Amino acid sequence: MTAQLAASTADRSAAKIDSLSSDGAKDGANRDSQTRTQGLPETFLWDWRGYDVSCAVSGSGQPIVLIHGFGASIGHWRKNMPALAAAGYRVYALDLLGFGNSEKPAIDYTLELWQGLLRDFWKAHIQTPAIFVGNSIGGLLALMLLAHYPEMSQAGIVLNCAGSLNHRPEDLPRPLAMGMGLFAKLVKSKLVGPLIFSQVRQKFRIRGALKQVYKNHAAITDELVDLLHAPSCHTGAQQVFASVLTAAPGPRPADLLPAIQQPLLVIWGESDPWTPIQAASLYQQLAQDNTRAVAFRSLPQTGHCPHDERPEVVNALMLDWLAQLSFKLS
């Protein structure tokens, strides 16, 4: 999910891997309990630059790394991780710093920060070319890794890939750009910012925002709302919210794709109001280019998070494509 979740709600008022350790956890016991209740592998804390990062691993085989979107966590992959592991993959997932059960320090959050986190995680725990899978800004991070670190990346899968971390002012009509600029200032305010955040994180507002972006409303369960709400109650969550919503937009997919030579599967929910199907035209064109190993699949009646809305469809698409990919690489 993208930073638009926050903006839209405000507008509407195998066992433990080697280096994973719980040493030095601040409120790790409380943070860790969230994902254990969802049928996922037990999570552990990995120390990254002195900060606790919540991680999980399951299965054995070719490594897959799952990267969530804005406001989400490992738990957003609860319907996918078991299926991928059962199919013969070693599946890693982690809560990006500032989200989920990971620590939430008062620092500047950028796509480059999380790219460094994922790079260091790969170096510490994987050390063989992996398949990076990401939704929304997680998809943009996957593209960044494929483009910038080809030695780490065997292939990529992106689901409703974000075009940026935040809207670029030059891409918006002037009145909207001015309004977003004012909102950013309010969010950053030490006086008003906490008040805005206290409203945004209410469960009924989270549910309302999900109804905007999930076409399949049956997927909007109490479990999902709790999964998104719980981390917002952690120490430092409001500062993370303010930092992310005022961060630089990061690279454009159009600038990353020419550097990506690895196979890429693009899955797109057609009913997504945040990253509409029209934004996928760039990927559709690449899929028609016989010189590029890009596959494109669109899903009707599906919104911004296809893996959570239609997991049975998305899991099958990913596994079928990966099976073909393994055949081609063998």
Q: What does it look like?
A:
The structure is a single chain. By secondary structure, this protein is an alpha/beta fold. It has one domain: Alpha/Beta hydrolase fold, catalytic domain (Rossmann fold), CATH 3.40.50. The chain is built from 14 helices and eight strands. The protein has helices at 4-11, 28-36, 81-86, 111-125, 137-148, 174-188, 193-200, 203-213, 222-229, 237-245, 253-256, 281-287, 306-309, 311-329; strands spanning 44-48, 51-58, 62-67, 89-94, 130-135, 153-159, 264-269, 294-299. The protein has an eight-stranded mixed beta sheet, sandwiched between helices. Helix 1 (4-11) crosses helix 7, helix 1 (4-11) packs across helix 8 and helix 4 packs across helix 5. The radius of gyration is 19 Å and the shape is globular. The two termini are 34 Å apart.
Measured as a percent range, the helix fraction is 40-55%
- In what range is the share of β-strand residues? 15-25%
- The count of DSSP E runs of length 2 or more, i.e. the number of strands, is 8
Q: What would the principal axes of the Cα set say about the shape?
A: globular
End-to-end Cα distance = 34 Å
CATH superfamily: Alpha/Beta hydrolase fold, catalytic domain
The number of distinct helices, counting runs of at least 4 residues, comes to 14
Largest sheet data? 8 strands, mixed
**Average pLDDT metric:** 87
